[in-house]
Amino acid sequence: MSQPETELKAAAKTVAANAYVPYSQFPVGAALRTRNGEVFSGCNIENRSYPLGMCGERNAINTAAATGVRPGEITELVVFMPGEHLFSPCGGCRQVIAEFMPADGVVWATNDGEAYKRWTVAELLPDGFSFEGL
Ligand code: THU
Q: What CATH number does the domain containing 15 carry?
């Protein structure tokens, strides 16, 4: 995987148009692929009670999980955002990403141009919290 999958980027861009971002004006779309080849997407949805807003990544992952997708079954996640700067997922999203993607799963940030950034899950959350080994 040397660049974000075209279908996932398109899905992330499409869902970003539905982002509800009256407070940040920063629409984020996320699309993921599962081991079974299914695609799920989500966008950020904010709230007038600011902490209740939810990121695009988590809305995409939780939508997949609600259909039965389980930890380790998400192989790729593409995050689409406006502007030139490609931001990495927030700390809360990293923890959720690490719950549902394997350590070698790939996360991309991209925008309306050709630019992208790529991380593995292990790069985003090294030595993350886990019950393994208990
Ligand atoms: N946001 C995301 O959707 N994903 C991230 O990884 C970082 C930030 C959202 C949260 C908020 O709605 C807006 O972007 C500005 O922070």
A: 3.40.140.10
Q: How far is the C-alpha of 101 from the C-alpha of 122, rounded, in Å?
A: 10
Whether the per-residue pLDDT at 134 is higher than 80: the answer is no
| Structural domain count, the chain | 1
Fill in the amino acid letter for 107.
V
Q: What is the pLDDT of residue 5?
A: 93
Q: Which residues are annotated as catalytic?
A: 57
The Cα-based distances of 11 to 16, 40, 50, 61, 79 in angstroms read: 9, 8, 26, 14, 10
Task: Give yes or no for residue 124 CB within 6 A of ligand 1.
Answer: no
Does 125 score more than 90 pLDDT? yes
86 lies in which domain range? 6-123
Residue nearest to atom 10 of ligand 1 (CA): 55
